[in-house]
Structure formats: C-alpha cells, structure tokens
Amino acid sequence: MTSTALASASALTGTATSTVTLVFVHGYQGSSESFHAFPGNLQHRLITQRSMAAKVYSYEYETRGDNAQRVAEFVAWLTDIKQGLHGNVILLGHSMGGLLCVDTVRSLELEKGTREPLKFTVTQVLAFDSPFLGVHPKAMVLTGASKLNKSVSEHTSAISNLLFTANKTEANAKRGSVSSTASSSSSWGTWGAVAAVGAAAAAAAYANRKVAGSVAGVVKSAVSKVVSEHSAFLGPLWSPGDQDSRLNWILLHQQNNKFKFCCFYVITTMQESGSISRRTFISTPDAEKAYSGLFKGIEYDSTRNQKTNECADEIEAHMNMFRPAIIGDGVYESILAGTLSEM
C-alpha cells in the first residue's frame, strides 16, 4: 500500500458514516505484496467516494498441502478473538486466494450452530482472475509451456546449484540443504500452477540422472515432496465436479442475499501467429450457465501497451493486474472502479 493513500485515508476517516473490514488474500506463491498499492487506493476511495471507513487486513498462508487444512486455518484466523473482527467483512482474493475465500465462507456457514455467534458477517467475496473453472487450456498449454521452457532455460544455474549442493556430502543433503534448494526451485513457476509443478518435476528428473548413489534419492525425494504438496493445494484447478458445485453454491447464496460475489477477470488482446486473439488466464463459464453473471471481464490490449515486453500475454496480465506501471493505468483503474462499484 502506498503511504500517501493511507495517510489521506486516515485524515478523512472522521468523515466516514460506516466502517467495513477488507481482508486481502493472495494467490498461489503470493504474499501481502501481491496487491501492491491496491488495498490503500481502494481504502482511500471508499472514504472519499462512499464516506465509508475501511480497516485493511492481509492474510498470508502456505500455498501448499491439503486445501481443507488451508480453509480450516483461514477460518481459525478470521474467528480468532485477537483479530477483533466485527461488523461487515469483505474478502478479496487474487487467483487461488479467491477460491480459498469462498471455501472459507462455506465452512463458516456449515459450522453455524457449533460455535459461539460471530461478531462479524462476511457480506461479500470479490475475486480477481480466480480459476473457479480452472486455468484456461491455452494459458496452460500454449503460453504456459513457452514460459516454462524459458524459465528452465534461464535457471540452469539453479539446477547446477541443486546438483552441486547435493554432491557436497550425503550428510548435508540429509540435513536439509537439498530440500531447501528444491523448495526455492519451485519459485521458477510463479506464473502459474503448471510451470511451478513442472519445473520442480523436471529438476527432480534431471537430478536423478546426474547425481550418483543415495544422494540422488534424497534430491528426488525432496523435490517430489514439493511437487506433491503444491499439487494438493492446486487440486481445485482440475476438479470439474467441485468447480460446478462451488459456483452453484455461490449463486444460491447470492440469490438468498447471504452475501454478494463477483469474479473480475482480465481479457487480454494479444498477437498470436500473426493475428489478433483475445485470451484469458482463467476458464470462463458458458453463457447459458446460470452462474455466468458472476464473472465480469476487464479488457486489456497488450498490443497497445508501451510495456508490452513486460506484459505481453494473459499470464503476465494475471500476475500484474495490480501493477499500473506494467499493465497500464487504464486497466488498473477499471479493476479499481469495478471493485468499488460492487461494494
């Protein structure tokens, strides 16, 4: 968050007529920094345009392991008395964070009657490029494969370091130095699920060929652990039954005025094989689906962006949607204004 936005927001808080709590939830391999200045800018606009004060929280979590465990941890965080949440709460999730937000609200709903009444109510879930229907096949297979190849090529030194570390001594490897290096190697794929898991798997296979003896087994085991843990967290990306069930649940609860929901997604116009195409990072619902109205597209023309080399495709647009200096002021403004309009 920018200090200017927060300072201005603080100065105007006295004019607010109501207060809301915003909880920002990052996506796969993200952090509180993933939203950049967006929380502060949104907070400022709520005050200046809606006379509404906003408390801002950022929830950070491990993007690996069992999804149900991640949901349980978020529920525990929200309901922890030390957090002091009360009144209306809006959850805002980027990418996989959007799915976590929805599943957490579902869990809170299911647990009603088994706990003391909560002092807060989740009135809205706003998602940003969240793959409720999975990542779009073109993003995974075409753009993603290209980025994975480039990523692996640019990080051969990291693989070399992995092997060098493994070759030092088997004792060092068993103490965890290889495991630590393997974990960092998964960050090659921060553009999305396939690259992250794929790069780690490639490193494991490479190590298994090049490192002799039991040390190779340690390397393979360590990286395989990374792959399996991240694959478990990313399970919702390839579970069609759960996807449909989740969206129908959202639609039903929105119709019953339990809470409001919207998923903003970026539509990227880009050059493809000499022609212009429009691509999305997420798979979007067919128009005939009842829940199709829960999704709102935001146009981004990469062919007109002066920083095209930094944001040339749907994956880059997904990763940089909160960075106006890269995706463009106009797109960022559309995301900000659209978010405000839903509140």
From TrEMBL:
Describe the location of the AB hydrolase-1 domain by residue ranges. Answer: 22-120
What domain of life? Eukaryota
Q: Which InterPro entries does this chain map to?
A: AB_hydrolase_1, AB_hydrolase_fold
The protein, known as: AB hydrolase-1 domain-containing protein
